[in-house]
Amino acid sequence: MEDLLELALRAGQRDHVLAVEVRIVPSSVSESLAVRNGRASSLTYREAAGLGVRVRTDRSWGFATASSLDRATVRATAGAAARAARAARSRARRPLTVTEERAVSNGRYRTATRVDPFSVPREEKLRMLREAESALHVGAEIKAGEASYHAWREVKHFASSEGRSYTSTIVHVGAGIQATAIAGGEVQRRSAPTSFGGDFRQAGFEFIRELDLVGRAPSVGREAIALLTAPTPDSGPTTVVLGSDQLGLQVHESVGHATELDRIFAMEAGYAGTSWVAPEQVGALTYGSPLMEIVADATEPGGLGTFGFDDEGLRARRVPIVTAGRLVGTLSSRETAARLGLDRSGATCRAEGFYRMPLIRMTNVDLSPGDLSFPELLDGVHDGIYLETNRSWSIDDKRLNFQFGTEVGRRIVDGELGPLVRNPLYAGMTPEFWASMDAVGDRSTWHLWGVPNCGKGQPGQVAHVSHGSPAARFRNVAVRGG
Amino acid sequence: MDPKEAERTLESVLGRLPTGIAADARLEQGSSTTMRFANGAIHQPHREELSELSLRIADARRLGTVTTMDLSPHGLSRAVAEGLALARSAPEEPKFPGFPDGGTVRPRTPYSRATARLTPEAVAAHAQRLLDGARRDLPEGRISGVVHQGDLLRTVANTRGRLAQTRQSVLAMRVLVEDLAPDPPASGWAEAAHWDGRRLDGVRLGREASARVARAPAVSLPPGKYRVLLDGSAAAKLVDEFVSLGFSARGAEEGWSCLAGRWGRRIAPPGLTILDDGLSPEGLPVGIDWEGTPKRRTRLVDRGISGGPALDLLTAARMGKRPTGHALPPEAPLGGLGALPLQVQVRPGAARSLEELIRETGRGVLVTRLHYVRTVHAGKGIITGMTRDGTYRIERGEIVAPLRNLRFTESVLTALRAAELWGRERRCFAGDDERGLSAVTAPALLTSSFRFTSATVF
Question: Which domain does B346 fall in, by range?
Fold first, then answer.
């Protein structure tokens, strides 16, 4: 492998090129198994291998990728990256600078797994999925049940002309169940552990066994049916308690993306958008309630955003983002950190795979737990609503105006959870919403959620990230039925 | 990307299967250049040469799919072994009809060799023309966007002798111009895609985007139901959401399609026809689907009457019908969705120009672009999202003021049922991935019922 890395590093060193980074992936495998209504749904095993080369000139980046590792292709790909950079350089208007950081060579990182998910017999996985899916069908109203499982393993070799190098092997797994109930023109879905595929972790198959999909399935099916006839919530401002999974998504959309420095510097303006945060506000902006503590921690055990080194070859870090409600940090790369005047990147530059250019991506962006138990969170609520498990999410291109829907709501009456409500939506503006957080759940309400579907970039990239979140209480939130 | 070599690769992989095992295989080979620009300069130039083979093996009625980028003899043998193991462990698909026969299919679709062969330097020059056009009328504007050029060769074969092949060329351009001086800042947007890049004029698109940048401060609009004129990009997005929520095979099969109970019934005004047409030069043509079924013109909405769902091999068999040529790749994540129309076209309407549509709107809102559109309730077809990059108040048939962006929460069925008028002029808009996987060719469209539920501050 070292000779291919060396070959690419040499071949990328053309006119004007100041630095070359090479990622060679000799093996990237994934397994996706799903059972839907008793049938196999898209059972897939994927293998990929190839390389990505990024070069930097004094004014531009260039990236090229190919799905072959023969020497001629490696050489040609590095040359193509240099050519792309030169094409951009000739039209560039500003110098490109990056942080100068200590080079770590021969780094090693490997996911700790107790049970290699690729060694578990497929029959065992499919048996679990079939049993879980079958157990969702607790009534004739359940028109679709699905149980799904995913595992990924990527071996990556990185080297840069600046002396950085590492090898990593990362394994992610996840699984979930979902029931769709239909009756009288109404459609309701209920999922577990959460929606959009379930929960995911950097771990081995032991994590899947702990999810107990089979045990959870009947109650998921029953709740989907119950939602069909539940009332919609009253419209108007009220007290909302968000469950851990929904609050994790709220962190993702209204804090994580908003604090990506490439968005703040308008580098994503044409597609995903920018941010309500201006560069000069980093360190000074009041983001929300003093109870708000958010960190981006790429060293957190088990997170999908955990790694040894990012795709610029920098060691993973823990970066405070919001401290006591004040914005103190951002998600950054070498280029954007230098532009903000920082001497270090936050080391959050990652690509979906060898075939994509590294971008600033969330790592594990967590809301820290507070000190109230779940009953204590409800205690102060005379009349409100508890919301859990995302169903729809939308936010404007500066990450301010949002509207989220959840699969399920429960009225809170005099500090107790009451009856179900269906199709709940809540909406707000990011700073006002976070300012309204008046109580944060303790560690018993906190969970690290794996999110394997964060989209960004052109060509599109899907990142795996995580969010640790407790439950929390928000006052005066606009709620209505969808 | 040699078509003969692609055929030989598929022949080779299918030839490695044991006797009695059926399979179909796809080889997607693409080369492309994407030039993203922001803050007035190219910041992410991307060049790729990728090939991926997908092999779906049927051991009797048990199906498994394996994909690989390793096209060496060893890689193909490993794919076969892995696919066999996967299929043998799979639950049975009782309605699997077997793979279709059908000989060789090479539909003649519009394809531009010149576009397919654009160099990175030429793509950068296209980006520069967008920048130049955008700057001409707004020199201090902040300009962002993308130019994507692609060349795709798709080859599909199966063990019953079907061989199908298609090529696709694409050039897609998108440009955003922002004026940061006013509070809130103003922005404008333009985009277009074509299989023949020579038909796209970057300077003109850049000027179109900067012309949309409001020269007056944006004002607020209270939430409520409005007459709304969706310009091409926004209309295409609405239609795309309607097609996804209405015509997906899985939604039809399981009953959660927003068209459930409405198949064959009036859902739109008699003048509105929406097609799926993979062969039309008005879109981004691609001649076959991922099962090798030739594309044909399908009427999704025929003069206001809903057609049937898109179907692939499996969903068609389960519903007792024939595949419609809308199969997606069988591997996850798309494979689980069944089939979906991806080359959608709204037939031209009666309005001669955007100006005429604005006049006919009378009192309402002009929307340039929809952002972050998500499903709120699939069965009811309710979606939500934001407007962006050019939202205007229309009074007495004229644009009178720019508006701060609005959140809409509306059923696609309501919006289309209330379609009053749409344009003769249409434009092709590439899907979100800008790479030609999907496209909607649409005119601007006026609907009398579109609900805004809140507003943002810019």
Answer: 224-455
Q: Residue B419: helix, strand or coil by DSSP? A: strand
Average pLDDT over residues B407-436: 94
Is residue A245 within 8 Å of A389, Cβ to Cβ? yes
Q: What type of residue sits at position B311? A: L
Do residues A190 and A139 touch, judged by C-beta distance below 8 A?
no
Res A15: pLDDT: 86
C-beta of residue B437 within 8 angstroms of C-beta of residue B417: no
Chain A neighbors of B144, CB-CB under 8 A: 266, 269-271
pLDDT of amino acid B437: 87
- Amino acid at residue number B453: T
In a domain, B219, yes or no: no
Angle value at C-alpha B321, between B319 and B325, nearest 5 degrees: 110
Q: DSSP string of A88-114?
A: HHTT--S-----------SEEEE---S
Q: Encode pLDDT of B121-150 as tens digits.
A: 999 999 999 999 999 999 999 999 999 999
Task: Report the CATH number at residue B126.
Answer: 3.30.2290.10
B180 lies in some domain? yes
Contacts of B453 in chain A (CB under 8 A): 403, 427
> pLDDT tens across A189-226, in order?
999 999 999 999 999 999 999 999 999 999 999 999 99
Q: Nearest Cα to B302, choosing from B234, B247, B245, B354? A: B247
The whole-number pLDDT of residue B432 equals: 82
Domain count, chain B: 2
**Bond prior to B184 in cis (omega within 30° of 0):** yes
Residue B434: pLDDT over 80: no
Q: Is B456 on the interface with A (CB under 8 A)?
A: yes
Question: How many C-beta neighbours within 10 Å does residue A54 have?
Answer: 28
pLDDT for A40 equals 87
Question: What's the mean pLDDT in B345-356?
Answer: 97
CA distance B180 to B175: 16
Chain B hits for A46, Cβ within 8 Å: 66-68, 331
Residue B216 belongs to a domain:
no
- Residue B313 resides in a domain: yes
Helix (H, G, I), strand (E, B) or coil at A264: helix
CATH fold of A2-228 reads: PmbA/TldD fold (3.30.2290)
Same domain flag for B231 and B164: no
Q: Does B300 lie in the same domain as B163?
A: no
Total CB pairs under 8 A between chain A and B: 284
For B176-227, the pLDDT digits (tens) are 999 999 999 999 999 999 999 999 999 999 999 999 999 999 999 999 999 9
Answer whether A51's CB lies under 8 Å from A8's CB.
Answer: yes
The pLDDT value given to residue B334: 78
Considering the domain architecture, whether residues B241 and B369 belong to the same structural domain is answered as yes
Are residues B88 and B63 both part of a single domain? Answer: yes
Q: Which of B130, B390, B51 is nearest to A68 (CA)?
A: B51
CA distance B365 to B385: 15
DSSP string, A122-159: HHHHHHHHHHHHHHH--STTEEEEEEEEEEEEEEEEEE
| Residue B285 confidence (pLDDT) above 90 | yes
Question: Same structural domain for residues B150 and B285?
Answer: no
Tokens coding B239: 């239609």
Do residues B247 and B160 both lie within one domain? no
**Distance set, CA A223 to CA A215, A227, A350, B162 (Å):** 14, 6, 39, 46
Determine whether B216 is exposed, middle or buried from the number of CB atoms within 10 Å of its CB (0-12, 13-18, 19+): exposed
Of B45, B71, B91, the CB nearest to A61: B45
Q: How confident is the model at residue B435 (pLDDT cuts 50, 70, 90)?
A: confident
CB-CB neighbors (< 8 A) of B373 in chain A: 394
Give the domain-ending residue among B157, B180, B211. Answer: B211
